[in-house]
Structure prediction request, 260 residues.
Amino acid sequence: MRVLFIGDIVGKPGREAIKRFLKPLQTEHNIDVIIANGENAAAGKGLTKEIAQELYNYGIQFLTMGNHVWDHRDIMNFIDGESRLVRPANYPVGAPGQGYGFIRTMGKKIGVLNLSGRVFLPSLDDPFSGAIRWINQIKQETPIIIVDFHAEATSEKVALGWFLDGKVSAVIGTHTHIQTADARLLHQGTAYITDVGMTGPKDSVLGVKKEIIINRFLTQLPAKFELASGPIQLNAVVIDIDDETGKAQRIEAIQLFSEA
Ligand SMILES: [Fe+2]
Ligand SMILES: [Fe+2]
Prediction:
């Protein structure tokens, strides 16, 4: 099967990019399953029920989250009843929502596991040992497993990729909003990319108006973030997976841009 994994959707520009690029992309690449990181989909911070529904309506079947998961209070109203949404599994016990879930399509089941890194991010539970535990649980249902590793440090991400090589179909990095040029198959059949990138405003600093961030670096003063406008982009990877073994066969990075 062919899976499309879309990088962090940032606010309205990100949703516009989904609206504009997703259907043609799906047709052109014969995509079977669509997963996206939605932690920034509501104005750059968090997710609301309404916006999740908008993304499902565009054809996204499953959403992963990250450190911004709790930024919009509306998430508390629906995360527990929402089977198409996961937040990092390594939040301490008692956090609402689920850390892994399943997509059921074409008579198959795809497990999706969300993990957060701990370098330059809140010190959650250990994603490495936790991953093995959760993967063993998912494996009882399906050999097809996609991991979204939401992390900052390239070392932590590459290390988890190798650690899970052969244990999952793909380890896809999110959170930095910059697509890395290292999409590859690891030795035991796991597709890997350090970061899939961002879906949102192109001429920005990680989605935010560039002037605001430049000024923040210049003055070190706090500033209200505002999303950038102008050209938009979609960043994603396409992964081919053997349905029977769960091994990845191919990974391709994709970047699409609107004109000017
Ligand atoms: Fe993000
Ligand atoms: Fe993030």
